[in-house]
């Protein structure tokens, strides 16, 4: 028997994880503040932040997303901002800040635990997250949510092509998918492009690289809610 969904009327709910199920960007913001602080003798705040952001984006192709890539980018930006004078002690503080991020407790967003448990009784659930394989798997394990997900996909990037391959692998038509996430660029738009549904739940912080505009022609299957616990009512309305 195929593990695909029984009929075209059945929906699969797919969730982003970072800043959709649990807090993540707040840890990056805290580490960025530490970085700014460490760089005060070399550069002003806005130069430090702009350099770090430029280095992070340039490092996406070689390193991918996640905390380990972020640590390497902090070090590279510090070398540049200090003209090569950054000290081993300062680099040590960046490494420590990164390890703290990796070890940080998984803090679920409001309403997530109950909503995910409730939805898993009615729908097959998938989590699709990008970043370091080990770190993302460890967060899912520590979140207490893992048992609710039928499918877990940890990917290096979230493009329409990547989503197409994931759904095809499981025998799921994109039209059956409702993708829920905090990033228009990574979670919502690529799935809308494939003909699925996209539900946007903005997080209070968004990494500059994840900013995007919703193309007007994709708006019919797009919805926005403020919290995950509004999703069950939205699904009833959509059906
Ligand atoms: Mg996210």
Write a structural description.
By secondary structure, the protein is α/β, with parallel strands linked by helices. It folds into two domains: 144 residues, Rossmann fold, CATH 3.40.50.1000; 79 residues, Putative phosphatase, domain 2 (DNA polymerase, domain 1), CATH 1.10.150.240. It has ten helices and six strands; from the N terminus they run βααααααβαβαβαββα. A six-stranded parallel beta sheet has the order 3-2-1-4-5-6, sandwiched between helices. Strand 4, helix 9 and strand 5 form a beta-alpha-beta unit. Helix 2 packs across helix 4. The structure holds magnesium ion. The site of magnesium ion has 7 residues, from loops.
CATH superfamily of the largest domain: HAD superfamily/HAD-like
Please give the largest β-sheet: 6 strands, parallel
Gyration radius over CA: 19 Å
CATH hierarchy, class of the largest domain = Alpha Beta
Helix content: 40-55%
* Bound ions, cofactors and other small molecules, one mention each: magnesium ion
Classify the beta-strand content into a percent band.
5-15%
Shape by Cα distribution: elongated
Question: What's the helix-strand series?
Answer: EHHHHHHEHEHEHEEH
**Annotated CATH architecture of the largest domain:** 3-Layer(aba) Sandwich
Number of domains: 2
Strand order of the largest sheet: 3-2-1-4-5-6
Separation of the first and last Cα atoms: 27 Å
The total of beta strands comes to 6
Derived structural class: alpha/beta
Give the helix tally: 10
Find the CATH topology of the largest domain.
Rossmann fold
Uncertain parts = none
- Overall mean pLDDT: 94
């Amino acid at each position: 028997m195929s593990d695909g969904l029984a009929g075209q009327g059945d929906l699969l709910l797919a969730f982003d994880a970072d800043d959709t199920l649990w807090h993540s960007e707040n840890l990056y913001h805290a580490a960025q503040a530490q970085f700014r602080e460490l760089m005060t003798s070399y550069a002003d705040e806005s130069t430090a932040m702009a350099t770090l952001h430029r280095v992070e984006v340039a490092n996406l192709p070689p390193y991918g997303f996640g905390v380990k890539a972020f640590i390497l980018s902090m070090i590279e930006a510090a070398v540049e901002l200090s003209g090569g004078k950054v000290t081993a002690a300062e680099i040590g503080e960046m490494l420590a800040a990164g390890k703290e991020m990796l070890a940080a407790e998984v803090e679920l967003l409001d309403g997530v635990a109950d909503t995910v448990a409730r939805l898993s009784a009615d729908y097959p659930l998938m989590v699709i997250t990008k970043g370091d394989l080990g770190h993302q798997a460890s967060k899912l394990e520590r979140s207490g949510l893992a048992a609710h997900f039928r499918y877990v996909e940890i990917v290096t990037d979230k493009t329409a092509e990547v989503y197409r391959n994931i759904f095809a692998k499981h025998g799921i038509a994109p039209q059956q998918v409702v993708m829920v996430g905090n990033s228009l660029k990574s979670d919502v738009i690529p799935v809308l492009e494939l003909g699925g549904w996209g539900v946007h739940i903005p997080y209070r912080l968004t990494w500059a690289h994840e900013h995007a505009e919703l193309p007007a022609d994709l708006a019919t299957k797009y919805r926005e809610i403020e919290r995950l616990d509004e999703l069950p009512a939205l699904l009833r309305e959509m059906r």
